[in-house]
Amino acid sequence: MEQEFNLSEFFKTVFSMNDKLDKLIQQTHRSPEKENKSDEEKPLTVDETYPLLRISRSTLYRYCSEGKIKFHKGDKLIYFFRRDIDDFLHGRSEENPLRFPIKK
Questions:
Q1: Against a cut of 0.85, is the pTM above it?
Q2: N or C terminus: fewer CB in 10 A for the chain?
Q3: Where are the domains of the chain?
Q4: Phi, psi (rounded to 5 degrees) for 21
Q5: Are 65 and 102 in contact (CB under 8 A)?
């Protein structure tokens, strides 16, 4: 008994396998760090933070130096997280353990 070759079914199978391979490639090339970070977990720069607080850039630096707002330091820049900004705005900010003068 000889089976008929169905060209249409062959191409459907090939395209289906190609789609599955594309999805697998995309999944393996995604950075889990980027994928799992919500907006609250992404660090904000000084330029992104001071407008949120409706203060000047120099006031933000002063608050950091005085330990009034929590910040993180990396690569000679300081960063803020949204949760820390929210805590500061709601009066729940703790003294920053990294308190030291900030060089502008």
A1: no
A2: N
A3: 7-36, 39-89
A4: -65, -40
A5: yes
> d(Cα 69, Cα 93) in Å, to the nearest integer?
6
pLDDT at res. 98? 44
Nearest to 85 by CA among 48, 56, 57: 48
- Both tokens of 70, joined, read 């929590």
Residue found under tokens 């949204």: 82
Mean pLDDT by 10 residues, the chain (104 residues): 74 82 73 56 92 93 91 88 89 55 51
Q: For residue 65, give the 3-state DSSP assignment.
A: helix
Of how many residues is the chain composed? 104
